[in-house]
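Researcher: For the annotation table, I need structure tokens for Fructose-1,6-bisphosphatase. Please keep the output clean. Sequence:
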Amino acid sequence: MSLVEDPVGAARSAPDALAASLESLALTSVRAAALAAAEHAGSGDGKAADGAATEAMRIILGETKGLGTVIIGEGEKDNAPMLYNREELGDGDGPRFDIAVDPVECTDLCAAGLPGSLTTIAFAGDGCLWSPGPGLYQDKLVVGRAAREAIDLREEPEQNVKSVAAALGKPVNEMRVLILDKPRHVELAARLREIGVSVIMPSAGDVAGAMFALLPGTGVDMLMGVGGTPEGIMAACAVKVLGGGMQTRLAPQSDEERDAVVGAGISLDEILDAEDLVRGPAIFAACGITGGTMLGAPRYTAGWVSTQSLIVRPGSYRRIVESTPAPESDSAGG
């Protein structure tokens, strides 16, 4: 899988006001978090990486002109350091906006020094992001623009794959579906392989998986299966602005989570699409921590540090390589 940029995407729509005002903040936030987390890559201490990334991101967001409210974060699900729900960041003198954030996606991969970990954030207009309350997991389908009308979470997995294949004009045995390698997906993977589908199963990487399914040229046709709600909300921001297809439904993974969702008066049966999850303008950004097929890891060369980031804004996406002078202690170590 490789990320292929869209050279004509920027011409599809005029720059959105939210993107224009917050793009720099999104990129600065994920870059700071990635550099902080990368110092702990391979340490075996995922909580330290999460904590460092969270604090780096909190500092950047706290200094911004405006006021952002964290609608959903990853720490609550993983019992990790977090930007907590309803936390407000910024000086209040500027735009108000919603935040969905995961300072370190694939914390275990970062701790093990393995490829695949990213830092991710999404911004949307004030009051635009759907909150899942105590719901931590959701069933998801994500596809690119060409198959956006072909998915239906009420149908069986095999039927969804066949419908997407028809929309893409390819035989089912050429379909490539990404599913997280979790015990809950053993049966799903077996069913898809039975009809000839190639099933890609990374150990983690829900947001990256959605991006691979959404963007053209990656070799992934769709994302399927149960993943975290924070990742789902961030992916929905990218799906919304690029015109892809997404359907989700809460899927509690424990009796405690189910009871909490029901107690909060949130439906376990309602199917939501990207328009339901993101009710207005949005942007998404990510930066590589440990490298991989989506974004490279920070690289230190001759006193400089280089990072790879992705920004998704209305009508376009682009990968950005940024180099800045490295802190003296880091540049000395290479």
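Researcher: And a one-line annotation?
Model: Confidence is low (pLDDT under 50) at residues 4-15.
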